[in-house]
Amino acid sequence: MLKSLLPALLWASIILLLSAHPQMGVPHPIWVIQPDKIAHAGAYALLAFLLHYGFRQPLMPVVLGTVYGICIEFMQQAFFYGRQLDVFDMVANLVGCLLGVWFFSRFAHLLPFLRK
């Protein structure tokens, strides 16, 4: 099982490193979909996709990915200079996890290296 989760663990490490980097961006109105929210959704979609390969049941990647994202948001608030907790990032992470599981359920059979 660890071998099948290794790509997800590596990607989770990359997410953590990127999340620790000081934020560089221009404030946007709240009603505009911000580029960083799309980046969050994409990063967590890939994380959930990779977790789904390891767990196979769809609920676990959504729960683990979302909880991981929430933990990182709190870590940003507490430990990372120039970063702050953002509830909308948490929502984008959840949406990304749901998309990742959906993509896995629809397209994993087309990728021969994902077959066990």
Give the SSE layout:
Blueprint: H1 2-20, H2 35-55, H3 59-79, H4 87-107
User: Assembly state here?
Assistant: single chain
Proportion of beta-strand residues? under 5%
Number of domains: 1
Total number of beta strands: 0
Gyration radius over CA: 15 Å
The gross shape turns out to be globular
Kindly state the percentage of residues in helix.
over 70%
Gap from first CA to last CA: 11 Å
How much is the average pLDDT? 87
Tally of alpha and pi helices: 4
Largest sheet, described in full?
A: none
Give the helices and strands as they follow along the chain. HHHH
The structure class reads: mainly alpha
Q: What are the segments in which pLDDT stays under 50 over at least 5 consecutive residues?
A: none
What does this protein look like?
The chain has 116 residues and is mainly alpha-helical. It has helices at 2-20, 35-55, 59-79, 87-107. The chain has one domain. The longest helix has 21 residues, at 35-55. The model has no long low-confidence stretch (mean pLDDT 87).
Write a concise keyword list for the protein shown above.
116 residues, single chain, globular, 71% helix, mainly alpha
Quick synopsis:
By secondary structure, the protein is mainly alpha-helical. The chain has one domain.
